[in-house]
Write a structure and sequence with these properties.
three-stranded antiparallel beta sheet, 1 helix, rod-shaped
Amino acid sequence: MIFLSLRMKLKGSLITTLINPLLLAKVQVIYLGMSDVLRKIKQTEREASKQLADAQEEASKIMADARKKSSELVSNAADESVSNTQMILESARGEADKEAKKVQKKGLKEVDSIESNASKNLDKAVKSIIDTMTSQ
């Protein structure tokens, strides 16, 4: 393989660029000094700490949102339960009213029947009482 090599010294680091003219590929190799390596490690640790803090903050937000949604769901379920209970009670009252009206109607028919029979038999009852009283 044929490589062209370029070397540069930049801030205590040695940068070597390898270029392959046939494949038009470029590879850069950076040789760092010990202080550069330590600086990079510390920078990477700071970045990792920041990412961890950001992730923890995001997790806290997610948990807070989940708690809020959970609370809303429970509240909505309770409201819906109360609403359903009221609908059931209203329906039951309606059915009870219908049944009460049927019973009342039946009772009125029976009272009318008794009154009708009583008025038909009134003359006979009066005559029977008078006959019983006069025959003694």
